[in-house]
Design goal:
The chain is an all-alpha fold. 75% of the residues lie in helices and 0% in strands.
Length: 160
């Protein structure tokens, strides 16, 4: 429920719908940032240094999305739910396996996570446009473009 006062000229129902959408994607973004750190901390193998750095950069990229999404929720009058419990209940990303160590395995799992995240961001663009919230649609357009670039970086490492 939107609880904060705002003079943004979107109806209360639209703002609520957008806050729900944004909170769903916020959960995914927070989970994705955590998964990138999981890979960063636990990667082992021949390309350790390069992958350790790559996963840390991916974490930084996604953390920027987290902040933008959360601030849009609050601007619309909502409450951003970044709690561990809220994220765990709401994320749509596949669970990250804790037992993997090899760089290629981390690359594969991160590629799956970024593809899932990018797809959800693209779907959010359409939902926001249909609701008449072009600002939220633009926010998700930028996030989808960045996620696609990060996915490209991951997938390039997976080529034989």
């Amino acid at each position: 429920m939107t609880t904060n006062a705002t003079r943004i000229d979107l109806g209360a129902n639209t703002r609520q719908k957008m806050c729900d959408l944004l909170n769903a994607r916020l959960a995914d973004a927070i989970d994705l940032a955590g998964q990138a750190k999981q890979a960063h901390w636990n990667v082992k193998g021949l390309n350790f240094a390069a992958l350790h750095t790559l996963f840390d950069q991916l974490h930084a990229n996604v953390t920027a999305h987290v902040d933008v999404i959360a601030e849009r929720i609050v601007a619309l009058g909502g409450v951003a739910d970044g709690t561990v419990q809220g994220v765990a209940a709401a994320t749509t990303l596949p669970a990250y396996p804790k037992e993997i160590r090899a760089g290629r395995d981390h690359l594969d799992r991160m590629s799956i996570a970024f593809a899932t995240f990018g797809k959800a961001a693209r779907e959010a663009i359409d939902t926001a446009e249909d609701a008449g919230d072009v600002v939220t649609a633009d926010l998700f357009t930028a996030i989808a473009a960045a996620a696609d670039k990060d996915l490209w970086m991951l997938d390039a490492h997976l080529e034989p």
